[in-house]
Amino acid sequence: MQDADFDDLRLFLALARAGSFAGAAERLRLDPTTVSRRLRRAERRIGAALFHRGRGALSPTEPGAALLPAAEAAERAAERAFATVTTRQTRVEGRVRVTSVPIVVNRLLAPAAPAILARHPGLILELIPDRRDYSLTRREADIALRLARPAREATARCRRVGTLHYGVFGGLDAPWAGYIGEMDDLPQARWTGAQPGGDARVRVADAETLIALARRGAVRAAVPIGLAPPDLDRCPGTPPARELWLIAHPDTADLPRNRVVADWIAELCGGLGGRPGGPVEAG
Q: Which residues of 199-209 are buried (b: 16+ CB within 10 A; e: fewer)?
């Protein structure tokens, strides 16, 4: 970008990844008006429009699409350069964005967060509960904890950190509850559907809702044993287990803050082995 600085590249990448001024503003910790003004200024400097604007959404123009891979390469090069210096430091500081499915974030990571933050006062931990796979390549997250070996993110660093064992909880004679159609391929969803009477009349989008229903005895459902609250009634049945995989971007995995958070997550996953339902297999 002629006469542009690295802040223009950061702005461009945030807009390309978020697809809106509001989303980019959140990533950059600016207000949307400032982001819009800075984009117009950058476009005037280079003499080309980088995004189509329409109904609150942004999409790259032809020059914008051509710039994207070069901007990402520049970002990676800068991160590697800073990592070379940062990894020599002993203090753990800065922001780490971690994503996983809601039940894992809410019942495993969030309760343990105060302890790691107390040990590292300079650490900023962002926990993102979402069943969608956030992209590490596009910097939507720094670390992901997923319930299967990743099929994508081929360049990411991956390690298996344990196994999430499932049990059946709820009312012994209650009807089964399962997942909505787009989640039919989950191992626990297939197992539930194969049980007698397993054609679930209640279908949900996450395990937290299954726990809420099972707690009232209204349904039977497959729920992670190590993450189930103690007041849930256990029923017979052994749903398939899920592998826990820790994924980090190779360019930032060795930053002290990312390494500390990754080790903390691995330790938490290993700690699930001390709960009812069998040991967690260490990866």
A: ebeebbebbbb
Distance CA 193, CA 36 (A): 49
Tokens at residue 110, please?
């969030």
The edge-to-edge listing of strands for the beta sheet with 94-100 is 123-129, 94-100, 143-146, 242-248, 157-164
What distance separates the 2 farthest-apart alpha carbons in the chain? 71
Q: Taking Cα atoms as reference points, which of 67, 66, 62, 51 lies closest to residue 18?
A: 51
Angle formed by the axes of helices 6-18 and 21-28, nearest 10° = 130
- For residue 234, list its beta bridge partners: 169
Q: Give 68's Cβ-side CA count (13 Å radius).
A: 15
Q: What is the pLDDT of residues 63-110, one digit of tens each?
A: 999 999 989 888 888 877 776 665 555 678 899 999 899 999 999 999
CA pair distance 138, 161, nearest whole angstrom: 24
Q: What is the pTM of this model?
A: 0.65
Cα-Cα-Cα-Cα torsion 127, 282, 258, 16, nearest 10 degrees, comes to: -60
Interatomic CA distance for residues 259 and 172, integer angstroms: 44
Is residue 116 a contact partner of residue 253, using CB atoms and an 8 Å limit?
no
**C-alpha–C-alpha distance, residues 64 and 57, integer Å:** 15
Q: Per this entry, what is the length of the chain?
A: 283
Task: Please say whether the beta carbons of 64 and 34 come within 8 A.
Answer: no
pLDDT confidence of residue 153 = 59
**Do 268 and 112 form a contact (C-beta atoms < 8 A)?**
yes
Percent of the chain surpassing pLDDT 70 = 88
